Amino acid sequence: MPKKSTEDSENSRARYTLLTLFRREPILLEFAMSDTLIEETLLESPAQLPYYIEGKETGFPSIHATVSQTESGTYFLTKPGVTLLSKPQVHLLNLAPFLEGFDPALGFSDYLEDETPLPDAAQLCKTAGQLCYASFGPKRTQNDNASRYFRNILSSGHGSVLEHANFSFLFYGISRSVTHELVRHRAGVGFSQLSQRYVSGAVLRFVERPEYQNDEELHRLFVERIDHAAHDYARIADALLARQKTGSEILSGEAKTDLRKKVQQTARSVLPNETEAPIVVTANVRAWRHILEMRASPHAETEIRELAFRTYLCLAAADPVLFADYKTVKLSDGTYGVETETEKV
Q: How many domains does the structure of the chain reveal?
């Protein structure tokens, strides 16, 4: 492919579309990247996947989940919702005074003249890695060869440079049992989860496991179970409120928030693991890669694997360079996972 002009590189990133199918409707997956990189990534990427990725034009991809209701009005979801909230922003021009402070014969100032734009996360990691060796001169790896640069990083296990770039997601439509597994990932990861102590039953929703969804009897039992759980929660909360008003010492509190918390922390005891537990997760690229390799693995639990695979699709759409080594695997049960030859970086 012809090289883009400097003006084109500065004003816009080339956009490419990849046709995929979802319920017989054409869906477009869009990537912002250089000519060279898109060729290499498409060879590694699945062309047909039953997922609809929104937000491509903003650079913040999402795979949203549909909310349903039982006949009794209880809300539930059947798939995880994954939406990217935050990602790195890079301003390389701030490097200029630093680079100009070296012998001009080294040609370090030319570092800012690279015509091939990278996604900000990839650029941040590449710049951090090149600083380690003062690789700012003409012989450095140029951005149009960034895929080779990161292959070397991954194969040599130098994962520390990947820790500079963070991505934040909102996950919803996932159960309490999934978040119990997810929060075990601690290094390089931050969590903020919905509190059942501070949130009332007005936002109560549940999650149906995939094993129940296409089985009439199991689905019926799920519906009965969550209807009962929602009803029991409301009944117990009302009973606790009544006792609180009559002066029950164990339910007393100094402020409205304390009073409400005392009721909700007690009533939540009847809620099952199927209760939805929305959570915001921030992690650096090295940590996200570990999560994907553990949770999008064919050996992972079904529900968390679906969450991890959707997260992979959004990460790969947001930064195709840093996640280009992953390949999609379709499993015998019809679900998907990922694998890579450069694990545990």
A: 1
User: Catalytic annotation on 295?
Assistant: yes
Residue 113, in any domain of the structure = yes
Catalytic option among 205, 295, 305, 310: 295
- Does residue 110 sit within a domain? yes
Confidence of residue 249 (pLDDT cuts 50, 70, 90): confident
Amino acid at 310: R
Q: What is the pTM of this model?
A: 0.84
Expressed in angstroms, the distance from the first to the final Cα of the chain is 32
**pLDDT tens-digit readout, 20-45:** 222 223 223 333 333 333 233 332 34
Give the structural domain span for 126. 92-164
Q: What is the mean pLDDT of residues 53-68?
A: 94
Angle (CA) 50-326-313 rounded to 5° is 35
Query: Cβ(306)–Cβ(107) under 8 Å?
Result: no
Residue 98 included in any domain = yes
Stretch 181-200: mean pLDDT: 94
User: Residue 60 falls within a domain, yes or no?
Assistant: no
